[in-house]
Amino acid sequence: MADRNTRLVSADREAKNGDVAVIDFEGFLGGKPFDGGKGENHSLELGSGSFVPGFEEQVVGMKAGDEKDINITFPADYAPELAGKDVVFKVKLHEVKEKDVPAMDDEFAKDVSEFDTLEDLKADIEKKIADEREQAAQQAFEDKRMQQVAENITADVPDAMVESQARRFVDNFKNQIQQQGIPYEQYMQMTGITEGKLLEDAKEPALRQVRMDLALAAIIKEEKIEISDEDVEAEYNTMAGQYGIELENIKKYLPAEQIKDQLSSRKAIDLVRDSAVAVEPKAAEAEEKPAKKPAAKKTAKAAEGEEKPAKKAAKAADGEEKPAKKPSAKKTAKKAE
Question: Where in this protein does the record put region Disordered (predicted)?
Answer without folding.
Answer: 279-337
